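Q: I have two molecules that I believe assemble together. Could you output structure tokens for the complex as a whole instead of separate predictions?
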Amino acid sequence: MKLKINKKILAKNEDCAAANRKFLKDKNILCINMISSPGSGKTTTLEKTINMLKGKVNIAVIEGDLQTQLDAERIRATGAQAIQIETKGACHLSAAQVTNAIHTLNIDQIDIIIIENVGNLVCPSDFDLGEEKRVVLVSVPEGDEKCAKYPKAFAKADVLLINKIDLLEHLDFDVNRIKKDALKLKKDLKIFEISAKTGDGFEDWLNWLTKTKK
Amino acid sequence: MKLKINKKILAKNEDCAAANRKFLKDKNILCINMISSPGSGKTTTLEKTINMLKGKVNIAVIEGDLQTQLDAERIRATGAQAIQIETKGACHLSAAQVTNAIHTLNIDQIDIIIIENVGNLVCPSDFDLGEEKRVVLVSVPEGDEKCAKYPKAFAKADVLLINKIDLLEHLDFDVNRIKKDALKLKKDLKIFEISAKTGDGFEDWLNWLTKTKK
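A: Yes, here they are, computed for all two components at once.
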């Protein structure tokens, strides 16, 4: 019975995601779903991305968190539009929540919408939000063995961002191991090594983003 | 309907957790449920804890992961008993899974069982496993604002371990902020600052552990 209900929930989510995808495609907006553990640096990466593309690409952010408006406030401080969804305890965003958020944004001024999912490397992987591309972000302090433990997060992603590379010298983290493991799960995965703190590695990530937007 | 099913699942879990708690109490075994994000250092903390108490306190570990036996293998390398539960995609351990694991352990040789939950700061908080005490672990690179975003993980814990304090000098992390926020959520929370890498701060944590075992 649990399985049946879960299938129903997922099927309803798929319908809603498909509608989001069509709506955003018609508006020529690139939509990205960003997934990571808590504290990997999603918000800092978005702040840096928005600031470095300012005047060239207009980015809006949909923030998912169990509670608090903290992340949306940080994004708004960059001048970008941001909508906070408080999931009230739910461990992932759903496509219906994203539909509501999209219709709250001033949509005509936007080139790219980035959805920052709830900090959780497990549950968000199962929920299509209507994104065009999915980005998984891991940070150096989390360790280099994450692919084996959380394979779905990598197998369903288009891009892997390895963040906090400025900490590599202080930690035992094998960049080649995680790259090799991730490419086994998704052979055409794009991988960028970045530091959202220093800006290192952002050129390639921003190039990918702007080219994918076209 | 979803809510009704969820309530049923939680009620069934509570029954099973109560049975685990009674069984372990009768055997005079302290059971701890450890919760954190992926990559916060749960396994490294357990390795260090087991090694530092070797010959004094006999610790066994029940490992929860989506998949892989990696963590149980690391624990077994210390000489301790370890059982790996592969949840096959489920985002938390359930009390029934722990029951099975307990009955696989050689129970007469154990003083303390530590359950390392699936790396996830959200979902495991809702599932009582039959533990006597709950430990939430956060690491310095994750940032000091975790209490506001994931309040349940802290409000339901008995101990907060702040790990990777050896990285404090490289990161912008306010120990007092997270302590203050955590104590607002749980006023009698015990807080220990540790480095599972260097062993710093372990004395107080191990004292708490051995005193709580009695």
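A: One point stands out. The first helix of chain B runs from residue 2 to 26.
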